[in-house]
Write a structure and sequence with these properties.
Elements lengths: L1 E3 L2 E6 L4 E3 L16 E3 L2 E5 L7 E6 L4 E6 L7 E6 L4 E7 L8 E7 L4 E8 L7 E5 L2 E5 L11 E6 L5 E6 L4 E6 L4 E6 L4 E5 L5 E4 L11 E3 L5 E5 L5 E5 L4 E4 L11 E2 L10
Antiparallel strand pairs: 1-2, 1-24, 2-3, 4-5, 5-6, 6-7, 8-9, 9-10, 10-11, 12-13, 13-14, 14-15, 16-17, 17-18, 18-19, 20-21, 21-22, 22-23
Length: 269
Amino acid sequence: MVFGDELASIYSPLSDKWSVPTQVTVKTTLNMRSVVHARGKVYMFGGNEYPTAFIWFSVEDGQWHNKIEDQPNYQMSTSYYDGDKLIYMVTCADKINPKVSRVQSFNIDTQQFNHIGDLPTYLEGSDLYVRCNQLIFVDGWTINANERLEIVFFNLTTLVHERSYPLPWTVRTSCYDGVDTLYLVADDCEFISVSLSTGQLRDLAPSPVKPNPFVLTCGPQRGALYYCKGANKNYQYSIKLNQWIHISDSPLGLGAEAICLLSDRQFKR
């Protein structure tokens, strides 16, 4: 599912065709980094409103649903679904204590938030992944607006920093295969994979177009990534062939603000 210009469309890799599920306006005040799919719903959290809002799109009925939560003023959210019942969120930009990052979980069964604790560091602009009881943050910014240039691991239970891997450049967009590998794209189109267990980096075929944030995702099938940037800039990447393959354009001509895989299959690999 691709979001852009306040509208959304859905791409099917099997048919190489697009559909437009709804013309309802997407609230762009919400944070696109927080877009996550879980059990047939696409959730968005945080943003520039207070009280904090979150919305979800139901794949089943094709409608948007909205809810307002009187949460603390943590606006810049990044989210990741654990494949079971929890969506983890790490948020910053608290006006009272801007040097910490708040760790929460959202239970999709009970629709309730739980405050797990606070990380003693500022993690704005990082992509978030969860693996083996670890919170994994990719790049982002420090409290002094410096590039972090590392992958950082925190223990999910204790919130203690465990290790870090250095990065060769600023990450523009990333995705996780659900097993052990991160795929990262740089501003100048460099493209690498990183093993989360060893930290080993591997150079891959450069991205064919300059990337936007949040526009890379694993596909529903093994061995494929998808990158959607807009008219004549949508591609599939074959992991086996190390090759980018052009795919069709959305009928809306969307310049993507975010992309979300409408499948939980990566958690079953």
